[in-house]
Amino acid sequence: MSEHTQVHTAAGDLVPTPGQTVGPFFGFALPYERGHELVPPSTPGAVRLHGTVYDGAGDPVPDAILEISQAGADGRVHGQEGTLARDGMTWSGWGRCPTTRAGTYSFTTVVPGPVDGAAPFFAVVVFARGLLNRLFTRAYLPGDDAALAADPLLSSLDEADRATLVAVAEDDGSLRFDIRLQGEGETAFLTYPRHDA
User: Fold this and answer.
1) Which phi-psi region, left, alpha or beta, contains residue 24 (left: φ > 0; alpha: ψ -120 to 50)?
2) What is the pLDDT of residues 12-33, one digit of tens each?
3) Which residue, 16, 48, 96, 159, is most buried by CB atoms nearer than 10 A?
4) Number of structural domains, the chain?
5) Where would I find the Intradiol ring-cleavage dioxygenases domain in this sequence (predicted)?
6) Does residue 25 belong to any structural domain of this protein?
7) What angle do CA 51, 191, 84 make, to 5 degrees?
8) Sign of the C-alpha dihedral, residues 141, 96, 123, 117?
């Protein structure tokens, strides 16, 4: 038995073993009905946040899952985080969407308001094949250059990384946010305290 597969020492202490990816089995239990609709599409002020997830070779990832969480249009983080309720009345500010075979995703939501002086953004989590853990990033709203320049996180990044965190306003009023897992134009990913990267 190699040192990498041995799980106990002679003294009985646990020895860490390397992580392994299994699956992905995301389609088995994680998606749920209307998980991509934080609000019904007919809601006044509803907006579509959409894009494509790309791997390091620039190919679309057909089996990823994205989660978003956000403040409401009033800038307040409220509601029932993580709730699966999609009754048109309960605002959770949270949704989950698998990518299509073409690597695309789409959420129907509202434009978030600013929280604590930061520029408005969607918090995005990515689960995908080949990842030992989920990835965290943000999709900032485009258009308010002063707010983006003053944002504490964005202002701490170089210009190339900042550009990967700002969504693009489409002609139809939607917001496009493509995610590149690695390689040229890789999306800037975040780590948080107590999160194993």
Assistant:
1) beta
2) 666 666 555 555 555 666 777 8
3) 96
4) 1
5) 47-117
6) no
7) 55
8) positive
**Torsion sign across C-alpha atoms 153, 155, 161, 165:** positive
Q: What is the mean pLDDT of residues 136-159?
A: 95
Q: Which of 112, 113, 135, 117 is nearest to 125 (CA)?
A: 135
Residue 50 domain-assigned?
Answer: yes
pLDDT at 83: 67
Cα distance between residue 84 and residue 103, in whole Å: 24
Lowest mean pLDDT among 5-9, 96-100, 137-141, 147-151: 5-9
Place of tokens 């991509």: 36
The C-alpha atoms of residue 98 and residue 93 are separated, in whole angstroms, by 17
Is the Cα torsion angle 194, 65, 112, 35 positive or negative in sign?
A: negative
Over residues 56-90, the pLDDT tens digits come to 999 999 989 999 999 988 888 875 555 666 776 77
Facing residues of 127 across strands? 65
